[in-house]
Write a structure and sequence with these properties.
With 104 residues, the protein is mainly α. It has a domain of 31 residues. It is built from four helices and two strands, in the order H-H-E-E-H-H. It has a two-stranded antiparallel sheet with strand order 1-2. The longest helix has 26 residues. It starts with a helix and ends with a helix.
Length: 104
């Protein structure tokens, strides 16, 4: 891909992103969201984050698979459940993943 095509793609993506983000305020016209919709919107970020984590943990290219990274995330989940700080849980996940990759 040439530099001109790459920059055109970047500018195009930026314009589309701007249009999508501007569509909400333009459509609402300064009105408040209904309460039920505002509560729903607050649930979207955790749901999206969960979906991204699950697809990264269980994906192996184009297939679903369970591997060392899955065990690392599970170990971090257990550590967080037991009250370990987030930084320590990340270290636990990295250590478990590295150990399993070294063994297998």
């Amino acid at each position: 891909m040439s530099d001109a095509k790459a920059w055109a793609l970047i500018v195009g993506c930026a314009l589309v992103t701007f249009a999508i983000k501007a569509a909400g305020p333009i459509a609402l016209g300064g009105r408040e969201l209904p309460d039920w919709f505002a509560r729903l919107v607050t649930l979207l970020a955790p749901a999206l984050l969960s979906a991204l984590v699950v697809t990264q943990v269980f994906a192996n290219g184009q297939e679903l698979a369970v591997g060392a990274d899955t065990a690392g995330v599970a170990a971090a989940g257990v550590a967080l459940w037991r009250g370990v700080p987030i930084a320590a849980a990340v270290v636990v996940a990295a250590a478990v993943t590295a150990l399993l990759r070294a063994v297998v």
